[in-house]
Write a structure and sequence with these properties.
Elements lengths: L1 E2 L4 H13 L6 H8 L3 H13 L3 E5 L3 E6 L6 H5 L11 E7 L2 H8 L9 E7 L17 E7 L10 H18 L4 E3 L3 E4 L2 E13 L2 E11 L5 H7 L21 H20 L3 H11 L6 E6 L2 E10 L5 E5 L2 E5 L3 E4 L2
Parallel strand pairs: 4-5
Antiparallel strand pairs: 1-4, 2-3, 5-6, 6-10, 7-8, 8-9, 9-10, 11-12, 11-15, 12-13, 13-14
Helix pairs in contact: 1-3, 2-3, 6-8, 6-9
The structure holds biotin.
Biotin binds next to helix 5, strand 6, strand 9 and strand 10.
């Protein structure tokens, strides 16, 4: 595990190399600036190379950074992050069971409001409705812990706020338009590219903590994921945001997303729920469609006519309007 607050040596070396790019920085300069022996500098450079940084080393000249890493390393995300709370502490894993589980542990500790847990791979990723979430390398798998002082009724707004923030960031950074599929999927041409899972703890009608889990099929092989989930009847197809030959660093997208999420989160705090609802509906592929919903109590059919204040989907059928709080939906062609 690496964090944004412990690995200061890596951070300092990389910052120095970046500020001199494309020039070399001498071993002596690095060692003086960081108050470390030349041998220690060499050891850290080796470690950084293993983390995907291409660093050229020339005897008697020094080191220079050729290309940056594509990993979601915490100091890379922190560098230039424009938030006050979200992502101020970052925990990074190459491999973990589930970022959601780690965030649940953090929730029991003080000073973790806004903490971000991010991983390159998950071995036991969790999806909605107790499903497995296949999380191979190339995706962005993260969880954010929040300890807001809200009433519990606000919880249902979080999937909306999160999916909206993600859609906006994808559009800004990658210039790709996505649709929002109720309750919290992001799709491209009807295929899933991201999903959101909320774990929350409520005490006497107040939110104690909330963990927002976000899974983005950033640069994955859809065939591999589909193979692993073929038993899931409700899988309507998945796709990848970035094709395998495209070179895009995921860090910028994560930074933008954390920023957008914090902005919308502040909107929830200042009570402009109406704006969230409007913005979400504008980007939604669900509103106006005739849908079939599978819920824990049965099947519902109807036309999706809107979202109410709590994030519930409003279904109209034969003049009657029903509220759908949870479930899966499929569109009728
Ligand atoms: C869904 O079913 O659509 C929600 C998927 C949420 C997956 C993310 S990946 C990061 C976080 N850790 C998990 O185990 N799940 C969430």
């Amino acid at each position: 595990m690496y964090t944004s607050f412990n690995e200061t040596t890596f951070d300092k070396i990389i910052t120095l190399l970046k500020s001199h790019q494309p020039q070399f920085v001498s071993g002596e300069k690095l060692s003086k600036t960081l108050s470390l022996s030349r041998a220690a500098i060499w050891k850290n450079i080796k470690k950084l190379q293993s983390l995907g940084y291409k660093i050229e080393s020339r005897p008697k000249i020094g080191y220079r950074l050729q290309t940056n890493t594509n990993l979601l390393l915490p100091w890379e995300i922190s560098d230039g992050l424009q938030t006050d709370t979200i992502g101020r502490k970052i925990y990074y894993f190459d491999k973990i069971d589930s970022t959601q589980n780690f965030a649940l542990e953090l929730a029991q500790k003080p000073h973790e409001n806004g903490s971000l847990v991010i991983a390159e791979r998950q071995t036991q990723g969790r999806g909605r409705l107790n499903r497995k979430w296949v999380s191979p390398k190339g995706g962005i798998w993260m969880s954010i812990l929040l300890k807001p002082n809200f009433e519990s009724s606000y919880i249902s707004l979080f999937p909306m706020v999160t999916s909206l923030a993600l859609a906006v960031s994808i559009e800004k950074i990658l210039k790709i338009k996505t649709e929002l599929k109720w309750p919290n999927d992001l799709t491209i041409k009807g295929k899933k590219i991201a999903g959101i899972l909320i774990d929350a703890s409520i005490e006497s009608n107040k939110i104690d903590y909330i963990i927002i889990g976000i899974g983005i099929n950033f640069k994955i092989k859809p065939e591999t994921v589909i193979k692993s989930i073929k038993n899931n009847q409700r899988n309507y197809g998945i796709t990848t945001l970035i094709k395998k030959d495209q070179k895009v660093n995921p860090v910028e997208l994560v930074q933008q997303f954390l920023f957008e999420l914090e902005q919308s989160y502040n909107n929830v705090v200042s009570d402009s729920i109406e704006k969230i609802r409007k913005d979400w509906s504008k980007r939604s592929s669900t509103i106006g469609k005739t849908i079939t919903a599978t819920t824990s109590t049965g099947i519902l059919k109807g036309k999706a006519i809107g979202i109410d204040k709590t994030g519930a989907l409003l279904l109209s059928n034969k003049g009657k309007v029903q509220r759908l709080l949870a479930g899966d939906i499929t569109y009728k062609n």
